[in-house]
Structures are given as C-alpha cells and as structure tokens.
Amino acid sequence: MKLQAGKTRPLALLFLFIAVVVSLLDLQIVDAQRKRTTPQRAAEPKPTPKHRTALEQMGAPPPVPKLKEKPVQELNPDDVVKVDTTEVMFPVTVRDANGSLVNNLTRNDFRVFEDNTMQPLSDLALRQVPVDVVLMVDASSSVANNIDDFRRAAQGFAAKLAADDRISLIKFDDRVELLQDWTKSRFQLQRALNRIEPGMYTRFNDALLLASKDQFGAPSLKSRRAVIVLSDGLDNGQGASTLEAALQAMIKAQVTAYIVSNTEISRATKRAELDTLLGGSDASVRFNQVNIDRLRLGLQALDQSEQNLAQLARATGGRLYKPLSFDALESTYAEVADELRHQYALYFTPLNKARDGSFRRVRVETANPAYRPQTRIGYFAPKS
C-alpha cells in the first residue's frame, strides 16, 4: 500500500500543472477576443493653424523703459554751466525813490555794464518773457504750525501768474522733496500743496542747490527764473551743501531768489519769552539760566541768518521780505507776483567773446538817477 501511494503523488502534481497551464491559455484567448470586439477610438483631427497677425509675429513687446535717476553730485566750485549761445538775458526790476515799481521805461533808459564796460543792448521786453517759479516751503518745526497760511498764500500767488508761466513746488525739512514738477495747472498745484507734511530740521542750503541744478539746470533765454522760499534760513548743518555753494549754483542757473523770512516772527516770540524769564526774581533767573542762554543764542542765530538771506537775495537780484506775522503771507506773495509781472528782460551779447568760464560782473543803470534798478550781480561765461 505504501508503494502505490508513492506512485500516485507525481501523477497528481502533473495533473495540477496541466490545469494551471490551461487556465493561463484561456485567459489569453479571452483577452484577445475582447480587444478584437472593442471598437478603436478614432484619432482626433488636428486643429487648423490660426493665422497670426504681423503684430503677433513680432513676439512679446519689450519691457517698459525706466527713467534713469540723475546721480546727486556735490557742486564743484570749478564746474561751470555751458551755454550754447553767447547772448545773455538779465531780468531787471526798477523802483522809484518811494519803492514803487516803474514800468514805463524803454531800451534807451538802460545802461548795462559788464566788468565796467558798457554793452550794446539787443532787445528789451516787459511782461513778454514767461517766468518759471519754484515755490519752496520750509516744513520744519519753525513753520510747521502755519502750513495752512503758506497754502493760501501760494494759491493766491499762482492765481496772479500769466497763462504761460510755470510753477513747481518743493518742500524741505529733514529731506528735500519735489511735490510738484513744472506745471501750468493751478489745480495740480493745489493738490501738491495738500501733500505738505511737517518735519523737524532744515536742509536750507541743500534745497536751494538742488532746486537750481535739478529744476533749472543750464541757463535759458526762453524764460525768467525765480525761487520763492519761505524759511528762517537756519540750516541744521546736516546736509551736504554750504550757503556759498547754493548761491553759486543759483547764479550759474540764473535764478532770482525771493526770500519770505519768518525771522521777525521768531524773533518776537523769543524776545517775549526772554523778557519773561529775565523779569523774574534773582533765584528764578539763576534757575532758568540755561533757557536764557539758549534764547540769546537763538536771537544771535536769527540775526546772522537774516544777514545771509539779505545777501542771497541781493546777489541774485531778488528781495528779502520780513512779514511780522503769518497772516501777512498772502499780501507778501502778492507783492512778489506784482514784481514778476513788471520786470524788464534785458538782452545783450557780451563784447568779451572769450569762452573761458569766468565770472563776469554786471551792473545796470538807468538814465534817471532817482530810479533803483535791481538785478543779479553777474553770470558765468560759457566754456569751450
């Protein structure tokens, strides 16, 4: 029995192997039949190529160009602005002995001297040459509380300008900011005036220099140039420019400076405070000695600043105004506008043809010795 059982085991394994092979063959046959009976998916038609326009064939547009910022450079005393023409234009204001403007003169009433040599006049124009005016406001702590007074004065000033006159707005304190570039729109100016925000310190010298170089640049015969700045002129010394460098830049750019100084307003405030402290008892004076010394130094600084501002206005042919209150700003700016409307524009071609970049002193006289002509002290000759 054991021997027979051993013989049947290999046969069972053989039958099992044959059954597995048959099952695999059946699966392959069924799979092949399924593939024959399943319908083939039709190939999708290719889309007709769309016609491209000439603009599309050029590809994507180039990126929008960006304006390159001008590098800020310190003014070198040896730098001279080059002028393409030898003709020179000098704005001249004439007042009589009472300080009233004189506006009925002709070319024959003027004498122009360059380095003490009389020059032949080319042309004379009154109220025919447009004026470009930069309004500058000191937004530091000395003026911050009265910005609204300046806004009203600036709007009144702009309303008195001619249609061809242009105006821009610069605010300076810790920074110098151009709030409005050149425009003839009084509406744009009003919007820019609303963007004035107060700061702390005063970069007075930097503001004048940047206005002269960036807003005006090289001299031009097409318009008169002026800045009207509201400030006490007390520079904080944290900027990169000196008053001498600012003055030189203004003369090179042929800019007239009208200074509306609040030195008298600040002086009255400091004197009143000082008188109060000095009017106390001896013990009170000793206790407040630090504040007393500070006020005295402040008054001395105002005196020195006022002298500097007067020199700046005189050298550029402008004027120094010292209103006694901020309420007087409107009438002060109206007076400046009146002067600009009644300026003479004197043109002459210098007899000295040397293009050496030298400074030439200019003096203007009138046939009537009672009249007082007012213009800048000179100009820089072109340099080849």
Which strand-content bin applies to the residues?
15-25%
Integer tally of domains: 2
How many helices does DSSP assign?
A: 10
Element string (H = helix, E = strand): HHEEEEEHEEHHEHEHHHEHEEEE
CATH class of the largest domain: Alpha Beta
What can be said about the biggest beta sheet? 6 strands, mixed
Helices and strands in order, then pairings?
Elements: H1 2-37, H2 54-57, E1 88-95, E2 110-114, E3 117-119, E4 121-126, E5 131-138, H3 147-159, E6 166-172, E7 176-183, H4 186-193, H5 204-216, E8 224-231, H6 243-252, E9 256-261, H7 263-278, H8 282-287, H9 289-316, E10 319-321, H10 329-341, E11 344-348, E12 359-366, E13 372-374, E14 378-380
Parallel strand pairs: 5-6, 5-8, 8-9, 9-10
Antiparallel strand pairs: 1-11, 1-13, 2-3, 2-12, 4-11, 6-7, 12-14
Helix pairs in contact: 3-4, 3-10, 5-6, 6-9, 7-9
